[in-house]
Structures are given as structure tokens and as C-alpha cells.
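At this stage, I needed to go through a protein sequence along with its fold in C-alpha cell form, as given directly below:
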Amino acid sequence: LYNINPYDLSNIGNQPEWHREEKKLEDIKDEEVEIEEGDTVGWLVEHDKDGNTSHNYVKDAQGLIYTLDWETAVVYTVGNEELVQADVPDTITLYGDIYKVTEIRAKAFSGCKKLVTATIGKNVTVIGASAYQNCTALTKVTIGKNVKTIGKSVWKGCTALKTVTGGQSVTAIGASAWKNCVRLNKLTLGQKVKTIGAEAFSGCKALKKITIPKKVTSIGKKAFYNCKALKTITVKTAKLTMKSVGANAFKGIHKKAVIKVPKKQLKLYKNILKKRGIGKKVKVKKFHQHQHH
């Protein structure tokens, strides 16, 4: 038995369907497969307008496709509707060269209806727009520890998604990132989050509690719109203003929600929250910063 590292692409034979499948890749006008003598990997060469090669595409044992550039790799697209598990690795190895996997391209797994779990490796810094949109079987996501940017609509419409972990380096959450994730009930925002996009959690009607970390400077319109079960909100940031919190950001949260805010911001935040949609029975109170000894 061979002990094959699934992310060592040197062992993958050149399947005859390689070329056919690759035709689904976006933006490839003119394509050819180059297989050098002795190679066991199919390469796909993309030509741009000037006829230059801009990327090499390569596929791993899971069926994930990568573009390789110097020392980095980008998870490009799958177009593989049978995919059940997608583990984006830290690195992939090809003929002894190690490539760090740094990005998940926009729409990479969009519409993979059978995908149940998704982990994201530690070298990924960017998750592109709609990367996992409408993956309706996806239940659990582990965000890599160096992801900084979550694009627009990344998990929008992932109606089975319950648990999101990791993401301690995330600074920006794109608009509609978790929109209509109706079963999402476990999610912690990392301490480095600065911006929460419009409709980011809109329609997340199972979400019961959230902490808004202390570096947050803006919350987009309808960010927590119609989060009907959202009953406990702790606002740690002191940086919000009427201008930086969008219209209806908190409209439709639990009618008897309790929102804890920093002591010095109590008056201002009460006013902002009322103008941004909280109901009459929602309580806004100050939290004590020294609760945790």
C-alpha cells in the first residue's frame, strides 16, 4: 500500500476527463493540456489576450482545482456537484515544490448541494464572494486562523449551516455573508472584526446571541434584520456612531432582547439602537467591563 499524501499532487494520474471538466473554468478562451513526458499531472494553460500563459491549473485527490503562481495556490473552482467534503489544505506539493494555499476564489464551491463540511486551511487570507453560496447541505464550517476577509454572500443561503468556528483574524465581513442561514445558532465573531457588512446576518432566525467585538467601527444596514431569536447582544465596541450603523440594522430581533453596551455609550447607543429598529420592549443596559477576573 502506498502512503499517498492527498495534497501531494505528484501522484495523480492524468485522467482522460481532465480536459472536459476544465471547460467549466471561467474566463478560459483558448485552452490546451500540456503533459510533459513522465508527468502524471494534467496541466491546463490559460492564455490571456496577449497570448501569455497566466496560470497553471492542477487538481488534487479531492477533486479541488488550484491555480498555481510562484509559491502560492488559489482554490479556483470545483464544478463538482458530488463533492461531500471540502478541506482546503494549508499547502499543496507538486514535484517537491510546496505551494501555500492563500485564497478561495469567488464562487469556488457555490451550489455544491451535497457538501456537508468545509474546513479552511491556515494560509488562506481571503474567501471570495459567494464562495459557498447556496451549499444547502453544509452544516459546519471551520474558518482558517489567518482569514482576514470574508467576501460578499460567502455562505448566503446555506440553509442547513448550524456551526461556524475559527476566524480569529477576520477583520471584514462582507455584505450578506451569512444571509438567510436560517439554522445558524453557533458563531463567535473574532476580536479583530472591524466592519460588519449590510445584511450580513439578515434572516438568521435561529441565532440567539452575539457579541460585537471592541474594534467594530461600522455595522451595515439590515445587518441583523429579522434575527427573530436574537435575545442577547453584547456590544463591546465604543466606536459606533449614528452614521456608522445602517438603517434597520437591528430591526426584527427578539422582542424582549437584552443589549449590553459600554457604560459611557449607554445614552448614545440607546438612541442609535432605537433609530436602527429595536422594538419598545428591548432593554439596553450597561455591562460591567470587569466581569471576568
